[in-house]
Amino acid sequence: MHSDQHKLQLIRETIEAQLTARSLGTRTPEGLFAPIDYTLRLGGKRLRPLLACAAAAAFTTEWQRALPVAVAVEIFHNFTLLHDDLMDRSPLRRGQETVYRRWGDNTAILSGDAMSIEAYATLSEVEDKSLLALLLPRFSLMALEVCIGQQYDMEFETRTTVRVEEYMEMIRLKTSVLLGSSLELGALVGGATEEQARALYEVGIQLGLAFQIQDDLLDVYGDEKTFGKPIGGDIINAKKTLLLLYTLEQLKDKDLTRLQEILSFPPDERSHYIDEVRTLYDQAGTRSYAESEIARLTEAAYLGLEGLPLSEEGRALLLTLFHTLSGRTK
C-alpha cells in the first residue's frame, strides 16, 4: 500500500505540473485568465485526474499518455464548481473567496466558459490522434449530462415532491458521470477495449453514487471534527437529499405531518430541530437504508473491477483510490 501511495503522489505532482504548465495565470487579458488560475490553484484531492491516470496504468506502463485526459477532466470539474458557486451564491470554496465574490458575476460566467473550452483544448492534445474519435463524443456526453444533473438539482429545489429514483438519477448525472468518464477515458488512452473501458465507467458510476450518499449521511450523522463542516446543514436548508426523500416516503400520519411542518419553517428556525428530524429519520429506518445502499453500490463497484484484465500496479492504484472514495478501510 505504501508504494501505491508513493506512486499516486508522483502522479498527483505530475498532474499539478501539467496544470501549471498551461500558464493560465500569465495569459492575457488577465481579467479572464486570473480567475481560472485562481480556481485551479485552490487545490483539492485531484481525484478525477488520478482516476484517469490509474485507469491508464491498468492497461499500459505509460500512464503519462493519459495526462491530457486527466488535466481535461480536472479543468472541466473545476469549471463546474466555479459556475455552481455562482448559481448557489456560495461565498467560500475550500476556505477561499469564490470567483464571483472576488471578480463579479460576469467574470465568473466568462472565465467558466473559457475553462470549459480549455478542457476541450487539453483533451485534443492526446498523442494518438486516432483516439479523439472515441474520446470527444464521450467527453461531450459527460459534459452535457453534468449540466442536465445541475438543472434537475435546481428544479428539485422548487418542487414539492421528488422521488428517491429521481434523486438517484440526478446525482448520477451531476456527480457520478464525471468519475465514470475519468476512468473510461483514461482506460481508452491506456489501450483498453471499448468494452473494458465501459465496464470501468460503470464502476465509477456506482462509486460516485455511494460517495454522494455517504456525503448525505455524514451531513446528518457525521462527526463535525472529521466532516470539516457543521452537521445538519442539509436539514437546515431543507435540501432534498436521499435521506430526506426516503424519510418522506416512509413516514405516515402524525410523524409525516410533523416533518412537513418542520420543513415549512424558515432555515434559521429549522436549525433548532436538527435532533428531532434525526429522530424521525431513525423512525423511518433511513440511516440503515442509506448505509445498505452505500454497501450495495460499493460492493458492485469492487465486483465490477474483479472481472477485468488489469495490470497488477493499475489494479492496486485503482483500489487505493476507491478506498479513498468509498471510505472503506480494507
List the helices and strands and how they pair.
Elements (H helix, E strand, L loop, with lengths): L1 H20 L8 H12 L5 H11 L9 H22 L3 E2 L2 E2 L1 H5 L1 H19 L8 H27 L5 H27 L3 H28 L2 H4 L5 H4 L5 H9 L2 H12 L2 H4 L3 H11 L1 H21 L5 H15 L4
Antiparallel strand pairs: 1-2
Helix pairs in contact: 1-3, 1-4, 1-17, 2-6, 3-4, 3-8, 3-17, 4-6, 4-8, 7-8, 8-9, 9-16, 16-17
Could you explain the architecture of this structure?
- The chain is globular.
- The model has no long low-confidence stretch (mean pLDDT 95).
- 76% of the residues lie in helices and 1% in strands.
- The chain has helices at 2-21, 30-41, 47-57, 67-88, 99-103, 105-123, 132-158, 164-190, 194-221, 224-227, 233-236, 242-250, 253-264, 267-270, 274-284, 286-306, 312-326, and strands spanning 92-93, 96-97.
- Strand 1 (92-93) and strand 2 form a beta hairpin.
- Strands 1-2 form a two-stranded antiparallel ribbon.
- By secondary structure, it is mainly alpha-helical.
Contiguous low-pLDDT stretches (5 residues minimum) are none
The profile of the biggest β sheet is: 2 strands, antiparallel
Could you say which structural class the secondary elements and strand pairing correspond to? mainly alpha
Query: Could you spell the SSE succession in H and E letters?
Result: HHHHEEHHHHHHHHHHHHH
- Relative helix content: over 70%
Let me know the average pLDDT.
95
Biggest sheet strand line-up: 1-2
